[in-house]
C-alpha cells in the first residue's frame, strides 16, 4: 500500500519534471519571440530607413504586393509613422526583458521602471495605431474596426496588469502581462501570414492584409492563454479563491 510520504514523493517528482519541461519550453519560446522581433525590426525599421531604396522597394514588391505603396501613404505623418515603428519594436524588447527571471531577481528596480515604460509605450502605440488605422487604412474601414478592437483589448489587458500589481497580486499581474505582450506579437505573426499568402495565392492583397491581421491576433491570444495555463501554479488546497 502506498504511504502518504511515497505519494508526496511522486507528486514532488512530477512537479519537478513538469517544471523542467516548462523551462525548456520557455527557452525555445523566448528564442522564437526574439526571432519574430528581429523579423519585425528588419522588415519594419531597418528595411525602410536603412536599406538602399531600390533594394527595399524590390523586396517589398516581391513579398508585400500592393502594400509597397502604403509606405508613402504612412509617411504623410512621419512622426506618427516613425514613432509607431521605433517605439513598437522598443515595446516588444522592453516586454521581453520584463520576463527575464535573472534581470528581475538582480535588478528589481529596473524591472519596475521597465514595466512603467512598457505600459506607457502601450498607450503611445495604441494612439499612433488609431491615427493610422483611421486616417488611411490599407484595408479600408474594416481595418479601422480591427484597430479599435485590438487597442481596446490592449488597454484592458494592460490596465488589469497595472491594477493587479498595485494590489501586489503577482500571479495575476504576470498573467495579464503575458496577455498584453502576447497580443502585441500579433504584428509579427501577421507579417509571416501576409507574406506567405501574398506569395502563395492570387487573393486581393487588401483582403489578405485584413485576414492576416485577425489571424495574427487569434494565434497570439491562443498562444498567450496556453502558456498561462501551462505555467499556472496550483492554488494550495484550502486557500481562498
Ligand atoms: C507592439 C508592436 C508593434 C510594432 C513593432 C508595430 C510595427 C508596425 C510597422 C512596422 C508598421 C508599418 C507597416 C508595416 O510594415 O507593417 C505598422 C503599421 C501599423 N500598425 Fe503597428 N506595430 C505594433 C503594434 C500595433 C498595434 C497594437 C496596433 C493596433 C491594432 C497596430 C496598428 C497598426 C496600423 C493600423 C498600422 C498601419 C497599417 C496600414 O498601413 O493600414 N500596430 N506597425
Summary keywords:
10 helices
What are the SSEs and their pairings?
Blueprint: H1 4-50, H2 53-64, H3 70-74, H4 78-98, H5 101-106, H6 108-135, H7 141-166, H8 170-184, H9 186-200, H10 205-231
Protoporphyrin IX containing FE (HEM) binds next to α1, α3, α4, α6 and α7.
Structure description:
- With 241 residues, this protein is mainly alpha-helical.
- The protein has one domain (22-231).
- It has ten helices and no strands.
- The model has no long low-confidence stretch (mean pLDDT 92).
- Bound molecules: protoporphyrin IX containing FE.
Could you give a short description of this structure?
This protein has 241 residues and is mainly α.
Q: Terminal Cα separation, in Å?
A: 34 Å
Number of helices: 10
Number of domains: 1
N-to-C series of helices and strands: HHHHHHHHHH
**Helix-strand makeup class:** mainly alpha
Uncertain segments are: none
Helix percent reads: over 70%
Strand content: under 5%
Taking the sheet with the most strands, its summary is: none
What is Rg? 21 Å
List the ions, cofactors and other small molecules found in this model. protoporphyrin IX containing FE
Mean pLDDT: 92
Report the count of strand segments: 0
* Overall geometry: globular
Multimeric state: single chain
